[in-house]
UniProtKB/TrEMBL annotation:
Its EC number is 3.2.2.-. One of its GO terms (biological process) is base-excision repair. GO terms for molecular function: alkylbase DNA N-glycosylase activity; DNA binding. Belongs to the DNA glycosylase MPG family. Keywords: DNA damage, DNA repair, Hydrolase. Gene3D superfamilies: Methylpurine-DNA glycosylase (MPG) (3.10.300.10). This is Putative 3-methyladenine DNA glycosylase. It is an enzyme of class 3 (hydrolase). InterPro entries: Formyl_transferase-like_C_sf (IPR011034), MPG (IPR003180), MPG_sf (IPR036995).
DNA sequence: AAGTAGATGATCT
DNA sequence: GATCATCTACTTG
């Protein structure tokens, strides 16, 4: 890990995916640890990557806001029951959202990646998003998947090898927590402070 | 700058 | 047929 706040040099980029052990932590810890890490996606169009700056934890059986609440096991949620480090993608309206599966096998928990700070492949992101405004490129869960080229075809893959993986980035100066976004109909769970973000980062969603 | 409305489609009951 | 872990464009000020 780099010094606090320090970004990687932008020349001679080479990524080293994290190991399997990175994911074997309690879900809330993993949601924190993912902040500052790079999310990398390789496609035929090229490589695109960004620093993760906002996440949310979803904790299976306990959590009314989770797709897997009450151990609900369907074709969609199946991968959440697998081992930590797998890719859980699902569709929300017209958008694809991406999660990191966490927790023990059989415990359906995951961390939603809500925002990243663009790092490599910015031209590609602009092309995919059809927008020039930097701050609008990856500042939301549906936006970042489009910018990075993450699709439903990534469902079930692992986050520790190409074409989609997590790599070490920078150490955030300050991490803030608060209630999660967009889950008004989930009873008590809507107040849990399970959203994590890098304080002051302009790419955090609103 | 902030708030609202409408688009949009798979998944599940 | 209801339910969304969203986005964009359009309003208002």
């Amino acid at each position: 890990m780099r010094q606090t706040g320090e970004r990687l040099p932008n020349d001679s980029i080479s990524y080293k995916p994290v190991g399997e052990a990175f994911f074997k932590l309690p879900t809330l810890t993993l949601a924190r640890n993912l902040l500052g890490c790079l999310l990398v996606k390789e496609t035929e169009e090229g490589i695109a990557s960004g620093y993760i700056v906002e996440t949310e934890a979803y904790r299976g059986p306990l959590d009314q806001a989770a797709h897997s609440y009450n151990n609900r096991r369907t074709k969609r949620t199946e991968v959440m029951f697998a081992e930590a480090g797998r890719v859980y993608t699902y569709l929300m309206h017209t958008h694809c959202l991406v999660n990191v599966v966490s927790g023990e096998v059989g415990t359906p928990e995951a961390v939603l990646i809500r925002a990243v700070e663009p790092y490599e492949g910015i031209d590609l992101m602009i092309k995919r998003r059809g927008s020039m405004a930097m701050k609008n490129l990856t500042s939301g869960p549906g936006k970042l998947t489009k910018a990075l080229g993450i699709h439903m075809t990534d469902y079930g893959r692992r986050f520790d090898e190409p074409p989609i993986y997590i790599a070490p980035g920078f150490a955030p100066e300050k991490i803030v927590t608060g209630p999660r976004i967009g889950i008004p109909n989930s009873g008590e769970a809507k107040n849990y402070p399970w959203r994590f973000w890098v304080a002051g980062n302009p790419y955090v969603s609103k």
